[in-house]
Amino acid sequence: MIKPRTTPGVMELLPRDQIAFQRMLDVIRRNYERFGFLPVETPVFELSEVLLTKTGGETERQVYFVQSTGALGQGGQPELALRFDLTVPLARYVAQHEHDLAFPFRRYQIQRVYRGERAQRGRFREFYQCDIDVIGKDTLGVRHDAEMPAVIHAVFSELGVGPFTIQLNNRKLLRGFFEGLGIADGERQALVLREIDKLDKRGAEAVRATLTGPDFGLAEDVADRIMAFVQVRSNSHADALARLDALGSGNATLAEGVAELREVVELLKAQGVPESDYAVNFSIARGLDYYTGTVYETTLDDHPQIGSVCSGGRYEDLASHYTKSKLPGVGISIGATRLFWQLREAGIIESAESSVDVMVGLMDESRLGDSLDIARQLRAAGINTEVQMEARKLARQFHYADKAGIRFVALYGEDEAARGVVTVKDLRAKEQFEVPRAELAATLRVELEQQRAMGSH
Fold first, then answer.
1. According to the annotation, is 115 in a ligand binding site?
2. Is 30 a known ligand-binding residue?
3. 25 is in an annotated binding site
4. Which helix (H) or strand (E) holds 256?
5. Residue ranges of the Aminoacyl-transfer RNA synthetases class-II family profile domain (predicted)?
6. 291 has binding-site annotation
7. Would you call 213 exposed, middle or buried from its count of C-beta atoms within 10 A (0-12, 13-18, 19+)?
8. Looking at the chain, which residues constitute the CATH 3.30.930.10 domain(s)?
9. I need a labelling partner for 219 at 20 to 30 A (CA). Which of 71, 167, 371, 390 fits?
10. Has 85 been labeled as part of a binding site?
11. Per residue in 267-286, pLDDT tens?
12. What is the DSSP string of 379-415?
């Protein structure tokens, strides 16, 4: 016998946890659509030459290649590879369908991606990403950058995961500041950017030691100015604008970064994002080199150990490998699998009740036709209903419903039939009541709507 087991790095859930996970995805999808984003799905695998357009990156070293059994003996690099994110497939998609799309193109995509991560708790080789991007043709105004935090706010408010902060910065602002310190070389800037992005994980002392160490060799006074700069955090809307004003005009790159971030912050207020839920944070850089302007990270205030739960930013040229058209864009991504796993570990998310609202029990075999008819009426009223197909002891039927997370059990036996009623047992409230058979669906709909209203608060 082969021992049944999953491979390391996957999340496989029992039904009630799967329901909770699906509901998280539903909230994300609903809010993406509410902001006018359109759904896109791309194949799980892409042509290797299309997918691996960059070389040497950490992500590319984790690619899973796909090989059919017929091609195994032919050698060479496999023709196909599994997607490792949703951005590269988006670039290919937009370049391929450029003449059929309306720009700015607003897409959302909720699909699994695959990376050969080292197996450890909370790191996944197969996981859902939930992305939105706005892609422009030739140009894309910075106003679109300001819409992303509004979407993040809507999603995480509805998810009900407690207080959170959307942290904002701009790569131009950082690069301009470095230029003012004499760090003008692009590669050296990128190294410093990646290092300061680790501030929250490594701590200020460790980051400063690296900056003044042999790999970077920055002077003590330069490192001190960088550390003072990247530890700036705003605590209100007015404070965010004041901290941007305090930077002055400086060089052209810094001035552009300040102007863009100021516009984003001002538009957040116009979109009704509460000022307690966003902050300017000059250490946010995002490790990926293709971000060029606004960058975002979202953290849960009560659970900082989880790290960023939603991040993204502005990039200038999405699809340069596939088209000569200039396609600037801005986007965010939620790693839903990792987020769900961590929220469950932290006790913020619990197993859901069953997606089945009612189970119609079977008191004796002669009543099967009645049970099926009652279920039909409940389903017609929009109530998810399961029917017990075998007459078993009532205690066993109740035990089954309770274990499956079904709240209501409807019973229609000889006594109920004689009086034209249905007995309803509420397993959560541990009480039962009778309802005229004709009024069952309406009564249960009221009960379920009350339950959902309580669940949303």
1. yes
2. no
3. no
4. helix 252-270
5. 22-339
6. yes
7. exposed
8. 15-345
9. 167
10. yes
11. 999 999 999 999 999 989 87
12. HHTT--EEE--S---HHHHHHHHHHHT--EEEE--HH
